[in-house]
Predict the 3D structure of the following.
Amino acid sequence: LQGCAACVQPSLPSDGDGDADQPDQPDITDGEDGGRDTSPIPPCEQPEDEPNDNAGDAQVLEMGSWACGVIDRAGDGEFFEVTTIEDGWIRVWTRAAEIGSTADITLAVTGDPFPNASGTGEIVPTAVSTRIPSSTDGRLVLPTEADETWQINLVDAAGSFSDTHEWELIANMTK
């Protein structure tokens, strides 16, 4: 029973002045939170907002902000849209394996359509990620112009899903 003696702490003697040296804490009664934010801390800057399973429901991704979510049901694809801020190169990067996820993410990025050379139709630039060496995570770096909108689509390469198919995504200007 000596091992349990450390679990029981003796009460500290009172110094007689109560809690005079303790800062005043708001009284919380009847469910009031005293003005404090009691919501859980979000897992990233831009948590996935369902539904975003098709191009029409694409969630806006702020340039340079991490988005995150989970592919947790059959057919769960993730769609985002990001608008470039200057001419240059956009980098779109997704992490899954790097963060310990069971997901094998394929990343596809589609840009604004532009007329083909003959003027008879439109070309829609599309790129599909290759894997980062020694990883299953995807990254793309593409030339872009200012105010160009890119649509990003994430899916599991094998079509699998689970509560452990977590992913993170960021798009930013580079080069």
Notes: The longest strand covers residues 166-174.
